[in-house]
Amino acid sequence: MKILLTGDFAFLFRLYEWAAMLAAININYSMKGKTTVEIKTKFLIAMQLCSILLLTSFVAASAGAQTSDAARITPPPVPAEVQVPEGNEVFLVGHATGTQNYSCLPCDPSKPGCANGVAFTLFTPQATLFNDRLKQVTTHFFSPNPFENNTIRATWQHSRDTSTVWGKVVGSSTDPNFVKPGAIAWLLVNVKDVGVQEGPTGGDRLTKTTFIQRLNTVGGVAPSSGCSSPADIGRQAFVPYKADYFFYKQQ
For every residue of 94-150, which 3-state class applies, written as one string? Predict the structure, then answer.
């Protein structure tokens, strides 16, 4: 959400001052011969009207700022595997800094990447997403999804209103034409069929989310050493990464 700039506040406050001044002048001319109580009552009513005007202007300006923010968000070209379905539009972007957290666990030796029966497995990301003005937008982690009997899902929680969304990966790409060497995959995450929840006071900034893309990744890949035998089981690795997360809503 974009906050109003200092100049925006200054203009609205000047508007309030002018309206209050006009109200006082009008009262001065129209209340001759009236009692003090009547004058005070009229003045309070005039000031309340001025306050309503100021609040209405502030809300309108804030709504316009949010719309303008969304219009300026332009996701990069992406591989077909992580393209968002038609009928959805981006409304929020967050630039993530954090870690991909891995634990060395037993695995099926018949599967790729598990030659020795153990492998690093992601147990949670731990990241903070910031907007273009370096203001915190959301946090990102794994958590139980109450809409799927507490299945562990990727989670994003808004840092102000605590609205929360859970998502399931439905597309992934490590195409070298897009993804940098040594970087984790770009992802397409389905939210609309998984779970959204308002904050405890009705916060809903994220609840309109339908899909999330993880793009422009840097780092985050599981270590190539440190998990090669049963003796390593339980060892953890916290790998720094960066990424851009694009949030979509239905058009």
Answer: EEEEEEEEEEEEECCCCCCCCCCCEEEEEEEEEEEEECCCCCEEEEEEEEEEHHHCC
Residue 109 predicted with pLDDT over 90: yes
Contact 211, 198 (CB under 8 A): no
Contacts of 64 (CB under 8 A, 6+ apart): none
In whole angstroms, what is the distance from residue 208 CA to residue 216 CA?
23
Strands (E), 184-235: 186-197, 209-219
Alpha carbon distance 243, 173 (integer Å): 14
* Element (DSSP H or E) covering residue 42: helix 36-71
How does pLDDT run across 49-91, given as a tens digit for each residue?
545 544 444 444 444 444 456 668 999 999 999 999 999 999 9
